[in-house]
Specification:
335 residues, alpha/beta, eight-stranded mixed sheet, four-stranded antiparallel sheet, binds iron/sulfur cluster, binds magnesium ion, ABC_transporter-like_ATP-bd, cell membrane
Length: 335
């Protein structure tokens, strides 16, 4: 089995004044070694909470894993303690975020931050670490690394900061890189460069990527497979080609219709009217029913299952069910 990361029926709940919010409610997927899996959805879909759950970074929030398992190389991370998780975050699973300013320390020079990461993970001497830091900055395409090591994060551009973050994340040779909207804050040209960089570096080391994004353009460019999330659930999963060519779930179809034209920036997905349901007002059946133009009676009453609708292509929609029912009837009538 080539699986490096397996999330099984993950449930992540937050407690608030108005009760329990099920931010992630039964999400499952697998990532193979060296594979790039995209998780796509609007904000509020639970995609970032999924990544924080995997990294064991919920402790500063009111969030808690309420059920399910997260297997990394066969070990269940939901049962790991903070010490074990810290080791895993340093050596096995690394993460980069949308805004590197939040993960770089503003009061330390770039060189020092990189060296500390290297010394911590690779047990290098200070001198070796400086040399390695320069090599790493060169590897992420920073042209004057000897100068950059003496600068503070705020002295760098957004693109440069993200390059530094990537070099830090890759420093320990992680087997999985979780990237949460890594290029969302960058302009289009820099975005393409950063994606290229991530692709090349991870290919060299056969690192798997879990790429969290709201941007299907990024998915098309980077991913092998994709999971579409809506209201804390996975609603569709397949290889990238099939998702674009033959989306099965009405939500995915809506997302595809809303891909912006090249060079046009949109803040919201316009072509799906309505919003992600708020937790206190979750529909009974399919969570997408209030926005779905195909909603039927059953959709309001009962939630469809996440089912394989064609080879390795999964969808959570009554329409697919009906299609397969009809197909069964058809097959039956010809026998
Ligand atoms: Fe639309 Fe019904 Fe499918 Fe939900 S189950 S996406 S409401 S057709
Ligand atoms: Mg997010």
């Amino acid at each position: 089995d080539n699986t490096i990361l397996k999330v099984n029926n993950l449930q992540t709940h937050f407690t608030s004044d108005s009760g329990v919010v099920k931010a992630v409610d039964g999400v499952s997927f697998k990532v193979a070694k060296g594979e790039t899996l995209g998780i796509v959805g609007e904000s509020g879909s639970g995609k970032s909470v999924t990544s924080l759950s995997i990294m064991g970074l919920l402790k500063d929030t009111s969030g808690k894993i309420a059920g399910g398992e997260i297997f990394y190389e066969g070990k269940d991370l939901t049962k790991a303690n903070e010490n074990q998780m810290r080791k895993i975050r340093g050596n096995d699973i690394a993460m980069i975020f949308q805004e590197p300013m939040t993960s770089l320390n503003p009061v330390y020079k770039i060189g020092r931050q990189l060296e500390e990461a290297i010394i911590l993970h690779l047990k290098f001497s200070k001198k070796q670490a400086r040399k390695r830091a320069i090599e790493m900055l060169t590897a992420v395409g920073i042209s004057r690394p000897e100068k950059i090591v003496h600068e503070y994060p705020h002295q760098l551009s957004g693109g440069m900061r993200q390059r530094v973050m990537i070099s830090m994340a890759m420093a320990c040779g992680p087997k999985v890189l979780i990237a949460d909207e890594p290029t969302t804050a960058l302009d289009v040209t820099i975005q393409a460069q950063i994606l290229d960089l991530m692709r090349n570096l991870t290919k060299l080391s056969n690192t798997a990527i879990l790429l969290i994004t709201h941007d299907l353009g990024v998915v098309a460019e980077m991913c092998d497979r994709v999971v579409v999330m809506y209201a804390g659930r996975a609603v569709e999963e397949s290889d990238v080609h099939s998702i674009f060519k033959n989306p099965k779930h009405p939500y995915t179809q809506g997302l595809l219709e809303s891909i912006p034209k090249i060079g046009v920036r949109v803040e919201r997905l316009q072509s799906i009217p309505g919003n992600v349901p708020i937790p206190s007002n979750m529909p009974e059946g399919c969570k997408f029913a209030p926005r779905c133009k195909f909603a039927m009676d059953i959709c309001w009453e009962e939630e469809p299952e996440f089912k394989e609708v064609s080879f390795q292509h999964f969808s959570k929609c009554w329409l697919n069910e009906e299609v397969s029912q009809n197909a069964k009837k058809f097959v039956g009538s010809t026998q």
